[in-house]
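[[Per-residue structure]]
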Amino acid sequence: MEKNYFVHESSFVDEGCEIGEGTKIWHFCHIQSGAKIGKKCSLGQNVNVSNNVIVGDGCKLQNNVSLYEGVVLEDNVFCGPSCVFTNDLTPRAKYPKGRANYKKTLIREGASIGANATVVCGHTVGRCALIGAGAVVACDVPDYALMLGVPARLAGYACRCGERLSFHEEKAECMSCERKYQINANLEVEEI
C-alpha cells in the first residue's frame, strides 16, 4: 500500500500509528504505537510523539518537541522548538505509576506554544492562545490569551492571526487582519 505522507529514512514509525495525507516527518523522529497524526502536519527534526498521542490536522511541531502520552493537539496547533509537555505531576523513577495515572492535556485549535515552553499536564490551553517562549504553563489558559513568564501569567490577548489585541470598552479590532473581538458576559474573549 502506497503511503500518502513522507517519513525521512532516519525516523522510526512504530506499527499501529495513523498518519494523515500530506504529513511530513523529518529527521530523527519517533512516532510511537497508537499515535494519531492528522493531515498536512509538519514534524521537525528529533520530534517524539509518544503512545496514543493525538495530533490534529495542520499542526506544526518544530525541532525537539516532545509530546507525551495524554496530550491531545487539536487542528492547526503550533509547537515551537524544544517545547515540552508532561503527563505526571509527581514522577519518580523508582515508583512509576503507569499510564492509568497520566494526566490529560488539551491544546485547543489554533493555539501556539513558544520555544522552550513547558505545559504542565492536566490543563487546557484555549483556542488561539499564544504561550510565550520559555513560559511554564501550570493552569488552564483562556481562548486568545497571551501567557508569559514562569509561571505563565495572563499578559493580554492575541488575535487568531497572532497580533496582540488592545481592548477599549470591552471591544478590540486587530490592527493586522481587522477581525473583531469582545469580552462577553462571562468575561471571556470571543470573536464577533
